[in-house]
Amino acid sequence: MYSGPVAANAYYQLALDGSISTFVILGPNHQGFGSGVAIMNLGVWRTPLGDVEIDADVAREILNHSDIIDVDETAHAYEHSIEVQLPFLQYIYGSSFKFVPICFLMQDLETSREVGQALAEALRDKNAVIIASTDMTHYEPHKRASEKDREAINAILQLDEKLFYSILESRNVTACGYGPVAALITASKRLGAEKAELLSYKTSGDITGDKSAVVGYAAIALIK
To answer: Structurally, how many domains does the chain consist of?
Structure first.
């Protein structure tokens, strides 16, 4: 109920861009289970809107280009950051797409760049889109959270993953999925992304009216 109206801006933009065969969805590992960077390469994920099949061929390609990603279902068992993206995609595309989930427990810059490079190699000639799932600042007053988040967002808009990490550290921006964002930036640049566009920014305070301790959300499109 908080992040959904913001995320919808990204999915609306995506819906205008035509059909997509495969989505690679990156998210943080909040629970601490499983491998440092964990992929699932077989099976389906079930939501109230039906089943979504994992793209085994694309998963295999990603694994072929990375030494750091492990096949590990346990990392995904209790994690929400990837699965909450699927109903948006099912609403737009029905059952006409497949996906690959990658969960990040390790989120240092070197790891994220390596994953991003593997994604770029694996997806170079494919009709695929990468989605990175993260919240922004957690549980700070609306004004302060917005100011900090805008600085971090500006680094993303510059397609500069190193600057993004620098701002996270210097401003103590408590984004949970910074590794997935950095991997997305890295992959996107290698795949020809030339710009990024902020589609929406809100905090939970914009929904509830209570701005004393909010969580920030942004929808950003990286575009060729």
So the answer is: 1
Burial class of residue 95 (count of CB atoms within 10 Å of its CB; 0-12, 13-18, 19+): exposed
22 phi, psi to nearest 5 deg? -140, 140
User: Tell me, what CATH number does 57's domain have?
Assistant: 3.40.830.10
Beta bridge partners of 2: none
Which DSSP helix (H) or strand (E) runs through 128?
strand 128-132
Q: Where are the beta strands (DSSP E) in 9-81?
A: 22-28, 37-39, 44-47, 50-53, 70-71
Q: At how many degrees (to 10) do helices 142-157 and 161-170 cross?
A: 160
- Predicted confidence at residue 6, as pLDDT, reads 97
Whole-number pLDDT of residue 214: 97
Overall pTM surpassing 0.85 (yes/no): yes
Q: Which two tokens stand for residue 23?
A: 């989505």
Show the tokens assigned to 217: 């959300």
pLDDT tens-digit readout, 174-197: 999 999 999 999 999 999 999 999
> How high is the pLDDT of residue 68?
97
Q: Which of 26, 22, 29 is nearest to 56 (CA)?
A: 22
6: helix, strand or coil: helix
Amino acid at position 86, single letter: L
pLDDT tens per residue, range 199-209: 999 999 999 99
Neighbours of 103 (CB within 10 A): 33
What is the token pair recorded at 133? 């799932």
Check if the beta carbon of residue 138 is closer than 8 Å to that of residue 219: no
Place of tokens 């494919």: 126
